[in-house]
Amino acid sequence: MTKRIKVSIIGAGYTANEHLKAFKDIEDVELCGIFSRTREKAEKLSEIYEIKNVCNSIEELWEKTEANILIVTVNEPSMPSVIEESVNYNWELLVEKPPALYVEQAERLKEIAEKKNKTIKVALNRASYSVTKFVINEIEKKDGRRVVIAQDQEDPERATSLGRDKEVVDRWMYANSIHIIDYFRIFARGEFVKVTTYGELFLQKPSFIEAHIEFSSGDLGVYQAFWNEPAPWAITVHLSDIRYELRPLEEGKKQIRWQKPEPIPVNEWDKKFKPGFRVQAEEMAKIVRDGNGNVPTLDDAVKTMKLIREIYKK
User: Fold this and answer.
1) What's the pLDDT tens digit per position in 49-69?
2) Can you tell me the distance from the alpha carbon of 155 to that of 228, in angstroms, rounded to the nearest whole number?
3) Which residues contact 230 (CB under 8 A, 6 or more apart)?
4) Quick one: fold of 5-125?
5) What are the residue ranges spanned by the domains of the chain?
6) How far is the C-alpha of 143 from the C-alpha of 157, rounded, in Å?
7) In the predicted model, is pLDDT for residue 1 greater than 50?
8) Are the CB atoms for 129 and 244 separated by under 8 Å?
9) Are 219 and 204 in contact (CB under 8 A)?
10) What is the pLDDT of residues 193-226, one digit of tens each?
């Protein structure tokens, strides 16, 4: 008989629901525990997903479930303290992005985890999109310089109007731009060695930022961000004879030189679930089964956060 993979979760909002939906689809997974500051929401999700244990603390969540995987989906300011407590227990950790609002906080969490011989996984789910994996698979076979262009749009003015925490709004490039800037880690090779930023950021009025990024591999990155004005989220990867465009990010086109663009196939999981979540859940399950799952780590998140800091000087 196949051993069940037990999964618990902290948080009971939209993102928690999407994670639970993805993990529930895996045959050998059992959703066994949930903890949220808002118990009413936790109880509602426990009914939907038949979760036996609704708990009042992280300690109780471990004692009642001894889960193999813990998913952490709390708000940004709470994330560091929840992670710090959660690493004390013997589960695989999958934490939502960003793991912290400050690079120094994230590095401290990494040190704490390393002392306990744990590797924290971060739900940078765009790395798990089927179109992202398609592009990775194709460009890995090709030599030559890559040019990665990322177009970002952020609206902290709207976030403020919706009542988001001031600290989160002030650190919005970490709270939200991480989704886009992480594509440089995904598609460009080597470490960034030089970042030149143009423009000035105003959090509460329209502004434009552009950054040119040089990598140790010779790859180049161009980051363009429109703040508090309309623009798309889009990624383009250019090679000498081919280009790939993700726009919207969960869809894509491939264009060979002298030919018309052709659509990149989208996996059925990315249509049925929040894109990237089902693959991400499967990879977490593989880590428990045989240690071979591929999920971005806290090291990866810190790398992207350092690039954000270099772009925004913040």
Assistant:
1) 999 999 999 999 999 999 999
2) 5
3) 153
4) Rossmann fold (3.40.50)
5) 5-125, 126-266+298-312
6) 42
7) no
8) no
9) no
10) 999 999 999 888 999 999 999 999 999 999 999 9
Phi, psi of 67 (to 5 degrees): -65, 150
Separation between Cα atoms, residue 105 and residue 79, nearest integer Å: 10
Tell me the CATH number of domain 126-266+298-312, given options 3.55.40.20, 3.40.250.10, 3.30.360.10, 3.90.79.10. 3.30.360.10
Structure confidence at residue 30 as a pLDDT band (50, 70, 90): very high
Share above pLDDT 90 across residues of the chain, in percent, rounded to a whole number: 97
d(CA 181, CA 185): 8
Query: Contact at 8 Å (CB) between 57 and 37?
Result: no
Residue 123 has which token pair? 């739900």
Pairing verdict, β 207-215 and 121-122: unpaired
In this structure, what DSSP letter does residue 297 have? B
